[in-house]
Structures are given as C-alpha cells and as structure tokens.
Amino acid sequence: MTLMSETNASLLLLERRVQRLQRLLVVAGVSMTALILTAFRQDTTVLTARQLVLKDARGKTRIVLGPLPDFGGQRPGFYGMAVFDSLGYERYGLSLRPDGAMVLGLDAPHGKGDDRNSERINLTADEEGGAEIRMLDKTTKVKSRMLLLDNNDVVVDFLDWGAKDIRFRRLTARGDTVFRESR
C-alpha cells in the first residue's frame, strides 16, 4: 500500500468515526432537550434545584444534572450531565469546567479495558477557543486526535506507543509528517 493510499484510508476511517460521533451528539442533544422540555412543559411550573438526580426503578442513579460527582478530586466545580449504566458506572459525561472549557466524554463499559480510565472518545472546546477530539485505546493511551491549533490549522495525529517512545503521524492540509518523541 502506498503512503497516499494509507493516508486516504486513515482519513476515511477518521471521517467515519467523526460522523458516528456527530450522530451520537445529535441524539444526545435531542434527548437532553426533550428531557428538559418535558420537565418544564407547564407554563406555570418552575423547578429550581441545585442538582437533579434521576434514578431507575431499582433506585440506582442513572442521570445527574448540575454539579457533577467529584470522583476523588478529578472534577471539582464541574457542572453538566453524567449518565450511568445499570451497574453504576459513568458512560457519558458532559461538563462545563470552571476555566470555561466544555468537555464531552464517552466511556466504554466497565471491564472492557483499564478501568482507571474507561473513556474512549473525548471532545473538547477549550477555554482559549481551540478544539480537540481524542480517541483512547483500552489501555487509556491516546491513539488518534484531531486538533484545531492556535493558528486555525487543523491536524490529525495517529499515535503508536512504543516501550521508550511515541511515534506520531501527523496529517495536515499540506501533507503528513512522521516523528518520534521520547516517553
């Protein structure tokens, strides 16, 4: 396979993944909007709460809106929404951080990789106006990312984690580059 066909295949795969993520974000947004509109459908009703916790029929927390669980100091002061699976593990997190960054994380099921960090897709609109989409493997290493740089260039990185270094393949509109960085 030539370098150009490898690049095209990689970009096609990334485009498919981004399209799936976009569809998921639309579904999540529509679902959240429907939930909020349903909760406030009567003009005379006002619901004021610091936090809204939705539980399933067994009493397990499934959705938290408002201040998010801290998880041992990882999210102090974060506001947003967290969705938990039937076992109580977070699978979706949307948060506004105190610094102004907006972050969406999609997690794998518990037991499907390193459970210290089950996040697999992370989408960030940062406090400086930048953006990043990251995909992590089952060992929590970043395997690919798309970045909006300070100069408004967009780059796509593919990372290969070796024992002593990380190999990067960076794709840009002007071509691609391969480089290594010591760990």
Description:
By secondary structure, the chain is of the alpha+beta class. It is 20% helix and 40% strand. The chain is built from 1 helix and 11 strands. Strands 1-2-3-4-5-6-7-8-9-10-11 form an 11-stranded antiparallel β-sheet, with no helix packed on it. Strand 8 and strand 9 form a beta hairpin. The radius of gyration is 19 Å and the shape is elongated. The mean pLDDT is 85.
| Percentage of residues in helical conformation | 10-25%
Number of strands: 11
Q: Kindly, what is the distance between the CA atoms of the first and last residues, rounded to a whole number of angstroms? A: 29 Å
| Largest sheet data | 11 strands, antiparallel
One letter per element, helices H and strands E, the order comes to HEEEEEEEEEEE
Report the sheet-strand fraction: 35-45%
Radius of gyration equals: 19 Å
The count of helical stretches stands at 1
**What is the 3D form?**
elongated
- Order the strands across the largest sheet as they lie in space: 1-2-3-4-5-6-7-8-9-10-11
Mean pLDDT: 85
- The poorly predicted ranges are none
Classification by helices and strands: alpha+beta
